[in-house]
C-alpha cells in the first residue's frame, strides 16, 4: 500500500537563510555590473606623485649630506686626537725615563731622595700633594715632576675626548644609514610609480622633461642683473660650465651634482670653501631678503626647511640642480618658495 505521508517541508529558518543569501548574491551581481572599473592613475597624476617623492628625497638627501659631513669631521678629529695621545705618551715615557735616570744616579752616589723613590713607586699627583716632601727635591726634579703631572692630565683629557667622539661617530653612522635608506626608499617608490605607466606614457613624460631641460639650459635673458663680486662671479661662471649635468643625490661633481653639491663645487672653483648642505649654506654669509637686491652668484635658499639651494643668475632666474631625473639648468626663481639669498 502506497505511503500517503506528506513530503517534509524545509524549516522556516532554512528558507529565510536561503532567501537572504539569494538576495545578497543578486545585489552583489548588480553592484559588480554597475560599479565603475578601478581607474588607473593618469600620467599627470603619476608625475605629480613622483615629483612629490623626489622633493621628499631631496629633503632626506640634505640630511644625509649633513651626516656625511659630520662623519668626515669626526674621523679627522679622532685621528688627530689619537696621534696627539700617541705622541704625548712617548713624551711622558721620556720624562719618566729622565726621572729614573736621575734617581739611578743618586742611588749610585748613595744619595737617592726618599721622595724620588716614593714617586717612582706611586702616582705623581699623590707625591706632589705631599708638601713636606717638596723641600727634599732639587729644582730640576720638581720641574720634571710637574711636567709629568701636566702630561698625564693632558693625556687623560684627550683620551676622554677621543672616547666621546668615537661614540658620536657611531651614532652618526647609524643616522647616516637611516637617511640613506630613507632616500633610497623615496626614489624606489617614485620608480615604482613610473613603472606603472605604459612605455608610451613614460616616453611622453621623458620627452616633456627633455624639452623643458633644453629650454631651461639655454642662456636666458639675464639683462638688468646687478654685477657680481669677483668670487661670486667666478663661482657662477664655473656653475655655467656644468649646465646639462645630471642630478644625483649626494654628488658633488664634477660630472653630477645634487643642489648643494653644485653650489659648494662652484664656489670651490673660485677658491672659496662653503659648507656642504643647503641648511649650512644658509648661514654662509649675509642674508638678502629682497629678491631685487640679489646679485649674480648669490646663493638662493628655497623652502621653509631650507632643503634646496641654487645660484642667482639675474633677471629672476636661478641656476641649480633641481632634483632626481633632471639636469643642471636655469629656472624661474618663482617656481619654488623663495626664502632669502646669501652673499658669501
The tally of strands reads 6
The biggest sheet, with number of strands, parallel, antiparallel or mixed sense and barrel status, is: 6 strands, antiparallel
- Calculate Rg over CA atoms: 37 Å
Secondary-structure element order, N to C: HHHHHHHHHHEEEEEE
The residue-averaged pLDDT reads: 79
Lateral strand order in the biggest sheet: 1-6-2-3-4-5
Helix run count: 10
Poorly predicted parts: 12-37, 131-135
Q: What spatial form do the alpha-carbon principal axes imply? A: elongated
Helix content: 55-70%
In brief:
60% of the residues lie in helices and 8% in strands. It is an alpha+beta fold and 344 residues long. Residues 12-37 and 131-135 have low confidence and may be disordered.
Written description of the protein model:
This protein has 344 residues and is of the alpha+beta class. The protein has helices at residues 12-34, 43-108, 114-120, 124-129, 131-134, 139-195, 199-217, 230-240, 259-269, 278-281; strands spanning 286-288, 299-302, 308-314, 317-320, 329-332, 338-343. Strands 1-6-2-3-4-5 form a six-stranded antiparallel beta sheet. Residues 12-37 and 131-135 have low confidence and may be disordered.
Identify the notable features of this structure and list them briefly.
single chain, 6-stranded antiparallel sheet, alpha+beta, elongated, 344 residues, 6 strands, 10 helices
Set out the fold topology.
Elements: H1 12-34, H2 43-108, H3 114-120, H4 124-129, H5 131-134, H6 139-195, H7 199-217, H8 230-240, H9 259-269, H10 278-281, E1 286-288, E2 299-302, E3 308-314, E4 317-320, E5 329-332, E6 338-343
Antiparallel strand pairs: 1-6, 2-3, 2-6, 3-4, 4-5
Amino acid at each position: 500500500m502506497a505511503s500517503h505521508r506528506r513530503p517534509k517541508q524545509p524549516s522556516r529558518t532554512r528558507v529565510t537563510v536561503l532567501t537572504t543569501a539569494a538576495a545578497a548574491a543578486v545585489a552583489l551581481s548588480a553592484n559588480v555590473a554597475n560599479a565603475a572599473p578601478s581607474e588607473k592613475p593618469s600620467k599627470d597624476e603619476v608625475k605629480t606623485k613622483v615629483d612629490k617623492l623626489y622633493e621628499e628625497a631631496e629633503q632626506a638627501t640634505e640630511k644625509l649630506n649633513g651626516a656625511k659631513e659630520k662623519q668626515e669631521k669626526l674621523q679627522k678629529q679622532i685621528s688627530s686626537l689619537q696621534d696627539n695621545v700617541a705622541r704625548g705618551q712617548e713624551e711622558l715615557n721620556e720624562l719618566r725615563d729622565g726621572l729614573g735616570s736621575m734617581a739611578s744616579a743618586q742611588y749610585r752616589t748613595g744619595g737617592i731622595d726618599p721622595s724620588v723613590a716614593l714617586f717612582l713607586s706611586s702616582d705623581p699627583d699623590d707625591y706632589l700633594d705631599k708638601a713636606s716632601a717638596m723641600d727634599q727635591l732639587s729644582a730640576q726634579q720638581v720641574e720634571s715632576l710637574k711636567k709629568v703631572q701636566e702630561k698625564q692630565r693632558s693625556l687623560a683629557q684627550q683620551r676622554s675626548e677621543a672616547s666621546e667622539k668615537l661614540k658620536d661617530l657611531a651614532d652618526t653612522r647609524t643616522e647616516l644609514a637611516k637617511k640613506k635608506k630613507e632616500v633610497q626608499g623615496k626614489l624606489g617608490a617614485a620608480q615604482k610609480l613610473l613603472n606603472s605607466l605604459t612605455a608610451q606614457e613614460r616616453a611622453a613624460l621623458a620627452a616633456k622633461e627633455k624639452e623643458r631641460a633644453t629650454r631651461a639650459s639655454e642662456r636666458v635673458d639675464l639683462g638688468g642683473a646687478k654685477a657680481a663680486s669677483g668670487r661670486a662671479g667666478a663661482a657662477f661662471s664655473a656653475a655655467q660650465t656644468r649646465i646639462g649635468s645630471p642630478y644625483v643625490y649626494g654628488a658633488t661633481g664634477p660630472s653630477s651634482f645634487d643642489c648643494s653639491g653644485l653650489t659648494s663645487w662652484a664656489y670651490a672653483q673660485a677658491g672659496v670653501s662653503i659648507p656642504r648642505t643647503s641648511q649650512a649654506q644658509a648661514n654662509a654669509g649675509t642674508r638678502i631678503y629682497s629678491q631685487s637686491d640679489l646679485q649674480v652668484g648669490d646663493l638662493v635658499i628655497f623652502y621653509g626647511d631650507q632643503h634646496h639651494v641654487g645660484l642667482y643668475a639675474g633677471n629672476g632666474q636661478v641656476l641649480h640642480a633641481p632634483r632626481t631625473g633632471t639636469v643642471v639648468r636655469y629656472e624661474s626663481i618663482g617656481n619654488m618658495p623663495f626664502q632669502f639669498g646669501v652673499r658669501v
